[in-house]
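User: Show me sequence and structure for the first protein, then do the same for the second.

Assistant: Starting with the first protein.
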Amino acid sequence: MANSKRQLFIKRRLRVRNKLRRTNRGRMRLSVHRSNKNISVQLIDDVNGVTVASASSLEKGFGAVGKNNVETAAKVGAAIAERAKKAGVEEAYFDRGGFLFHGKVKALADAAREGGLKI
C-alpha cells in the first residue's frame, strides 16, 4: 500500500531530525515551520531546551498576513539572523523538518546565511 503525503512528511521529518541529533556538536538548531499561510522559524538550544530567538511572518513588517511567498520568507530569514546575532549565536544547524529544501524554505535559509548566520 502506498504511503500518504502525511506519512511521507513524517518520515522525512524524523530522518532529518535524527541525523541532526547524531551530528550535532553543541550547535543551536534553526527549526522551520511552513503552513499554507505563514512561515516561522525558531533558534532552539536543545541542550537546555530553550528557544533563544524566533521570527514569523505573522509579525508586523513582514508584509500582509497570509501572503506566504518567497519574499516574505526571505524577510523572516533576515530577521532571525539579526536576532541570532543579538543573542550571540553565530552558527546553527538548519532543521527543515519534513519540508523540502525548495522555494520558501530555501529562501529563508539563504537570507539567514546572507545575514551572517552560519548554517
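Switching to the second protein now.
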Amino acid sequence: MSDHEVAHRLATEAGKLLLEVREELADAGEADRKAAGDKRSHDYLMEELARERPDDAVLSEEGVDDPVRLRAERVWIVDPLDGTREFSELGREDWAVHVALWQSGQLVAGAVALPAQGVTLATPDPAPPPPHAGKPRIVVSRTRPPAIALQVRDRLDGTLVEMGSAGAKVAAVIQGLADVYVHAGGQYEWDSAAPVAVARAAGLHTSRIDGSPLEYNRADPLLPDLVVCRPEYADAVLAVTG
C-alpha cells in the first residue's frame, strides 16, 4: 500500500470511528463527546501507523511529542479530530481528520477526511476546484473571524463564508466552495499539514501570510498563520497579509 493510500485509508477509517462515537454518545454531554472522539481517533491512528509504517515517527496533536521525530526522515503529522467543538455539536459537518506524511523536508502525502460529509480529499491527484465567476469567497471562523481576513475581503471585494475547523476550511477551497482561506490566530503543524498537502496537489497556493514557505517537523510545532487560495488571488491576498 502506498503512502497516499495509507493516508487516505487511515483518515477515512478514523472518521468512521468518530461517527460511531457521535452516535454512541448522542445523549451525553459535549465534553464527553470531545474527550472520547479525541482519544479513540488518536488511539486508532497510532495503532494503525505502528502496524503499517513501524519505522516512521509520528507527531499527533493528542500524543506526547517524541523528539526522535527531529532525527527521522519520515514523520506522520496527524490531527485525530480537527474541529472538536463542531464534532461535539450534533448535526454539524465542518470537522475533519488529518493524516499527512513529511519526508526529508517536504509534505509528500496527505488526506483530509470530512466524515459527516462522507468525503475524503487526498493526494496524489485531488481534483482541482471548479471555476467560480462570482465574488471571491473568503472562508473564516464562524465565531471569531480574524481581522486580516476582513481586510482581505475588503481588498478583494469579497464575501465571507463561515465554517468550523481548519481542515474543513481548506477543504472548502479545494472543493470550490470558497476561494481564499487566511488564518493568523495561532495554529500548529497538525492543523495544516494534511490540508496543505492536498491543497498543493490540487494546484492551490499555500504559504505563510508573509509569503514564505510553510515548513513542517520543526522542534516547535507552532505554525501560527496560513494562506490557502486559488493561484489567481495569491498576489492580492499577500499584498494585504505580507
